Amino acid sequence: MKKTLSVIIAAHNEAKTIGPLVRRLCRWYRRPEVIVIANGCTDRTASIARGAGARVVRFKNRLGPDVGRAVGLSIARGDICLVVDGDMIVPPAQLEPFVRAVQGGVDIALNGYPFPGTKKFHHPTAIAKHALNIFADRADLRAASLTTVPHAISRRAIKLLGPLAFCVPPVAQARAICDGRLRIEIAGQVAVGALNRSRGAEHDQAMRRLIIGDCLEGVNIIIDQRGVRGGFTDLGRKRDLAQGASFIPKERVSAAAIVPTQGEAGLTRLVGELTNAPFDHIRLVLNGANEEDIESVRTTSTIEVDYFAEPVGHDVGRAIGCMQVDSDKYFITDADIPLTREDVEPFLDAIDRDVDIALNNLDRILSKARQVDPPSIVKRFLNIACDRPDLGVSSLTAVPHAISGRILREIGFESIAVPPLGQVKAILAGLHVEAVHPVDVVKMNAVRPHLHNADSGKPLQKLIVGDHLEAIAYLQEVQGSRGNFPDPIRRIDLAERYIM
User: Fold this and answer.
1) Are residues 246 and 105 in the same domain?
2) What are the Glycosyltransferase 2-like domain coordinates in residue numbering (predicted)?
3) 314 contacts: CB under 8 Å, gap ≥ 6
4) How far apart (Å, rounded) are the C-alpha atoms in residues 340 and 274?
5) What is d(CA 25, CA 229) in angstroms, rounded to the nearest whole number?
């Protein structure tokens, strides 16, 4: 007889909890079909589950995380499949919202854990899950993921995606979102972190790296389906201008300051400060403004101006300015960021001590509690994906920063026209990238309603998200879809044999 609800439980040596869990589920008024996938068990998990009323499928070998869930989904008879873990006894009252959501038309009903405002919300795995949703243009899902139980899935979603997709939950989630026919929502709030038993630091580290790799695989699905920018705007960048063939550098200087500008009001003050700093050359890239607006700041022979009648696009001015001068050190900032000599020198000093890229240390400015916006999440995730979690939210996207001239010529001037791409290229090349000094650009940066406000669709935010997705596309081109986070645990081959 076809059941309305099936509950899937993957279990490995859960003899202590599987009996009470199955009995509680069987007493639930919904009378679900309870399926236990006992894999690699050396205790009485299977027999206890069967005695408590579950349908049991046994595997001699361990299947690894999530694979048992996929096997359970392949044999479940319910119109709704609810996935829980064998070591967590969640009261049916807390499971009800997930089932009701699917009954109401949701195809994938997720647990909203980890909750915003909590320490777990900033855990590397939560950042990875959150970033995946942002790249999929579902920032509303925050860090909610099919990796986390409990969750409920409609029969329709299982048929469209296929049970094997759920062996790597973020892959199933990315496919579901990209498909466009499936409805995915947060349906409940179960604090599973308090229920999940600790298995030791080594296990936690292995799971952390597995989930990060899973989310990278999910991001790869988005790139494959929607392109390297995932459909996010490039805001009209004139990338062709950042190609160096038409520019001939002049005599080499020791230190050059590069300032893209559209004639901002604070430019005169900034140039004055830069003139007092140890620069041999200051280059202003005026674009999309009247050339006459900048003549008042050309006060010394060290200041030169490149003029473009039309805007060249975000970050392209940085690349153009660097290409026009041959320097040992490039210091890059924006015209609307007031700086002092004390803000400039730590970046130049870092290059002198063999740092290749000296970044603004934004973790000293922004507490983790404030790092909840999409740009902060994708910046942190990119560093995690590059195996550089120590960089936090520091990014070439943010000014000011300094770059060694030798290194910039190595990774290519065009790379910094999409700053996260340049950052990834540098890290993968084994270069010394370091967050060296905090400058509070968050407080200083002027709000531009047409770029920042929700009414305008937050195009600058979307640009930054697209830049980081493009950078991850490059990372995956070099390292593969999981980056440096392989999956040595799962036995998807055993699931394939069983399901096929």
Assistant:
1) no
2) 6-126
3) 235, 237, 460, 463
4) 8
5) 44
C-alpha 295/C-alpha 263 separation (Å) is 10
How large a percentage of the chain has pLDDT more than 90?
Answer: 83
Residue 50, H or E segment: helix 45-52
Shared domain for 243 and 224, answered yes or no, is: no
By the 8 A CB rule, do 313 and 338 touch? no
Report residue 2's pLDDT band, with 50, 70 and 90 as the boundaries: very low
Structure tokens at 272: 């004055």
Domain of 434 in residue numbering reads as 239-479
Residue 223, domain CATH: 3.90.550.10
Is 262 strand, coil or helix?
coil
Residue 178 domain-assigned (yes or no): yes
pLDDT (tens digit per residue) in 200-219: 889 899 999 999 999 999 99
**Domain annotation covers residue 487:** no
Question: What pLDDT digit, counting tens, does each position of 334-358 carry?
Answer: 998 989 999 999 999 999 999 999 9
- Are 219 and 147 contained in the same domain? yes
What local confidence, expressed as pLDDT, does residue 1 receive?
40
211 and 248 belong to one structural domain: no
How confident is the model over 108-144, as pLDDT tens digits?
999 999 999 999 999 999 999 999 999 999 999 999 9
Distances (CA, A) of 190 to 6, 32, 103, 111, 151: 19, 20, 19, 6, 10
Q: Would residue 486 count as lying in a domain?
A: no
- The pair of structure tokens assigned to 319 is 């690349």
CA atoms within 13 A on the CB side of 352: 8
Alpha-carbon distance of 7 to 25, in angstroms, equals 8
Our count of domains for the chain comes to: 2
Beta strands in 220-333 (DSSP E): 253-261, 281-287, 303-308, 327-332
Among 156-160, 268-272, 463-467, name the one with the lowest average pLDDT.
268-272
Q: Which of 88, 110, 87, 86 is nearest to 98 (CA)?
A: 110
Q: What is the pTM of this model?
A: 0.95
* Domain identity same for 224 and 321: no
State the DSSP H helix or E strand holding residue 35, giving kind and residue range, or none if neither.
Answer: strand 33-39
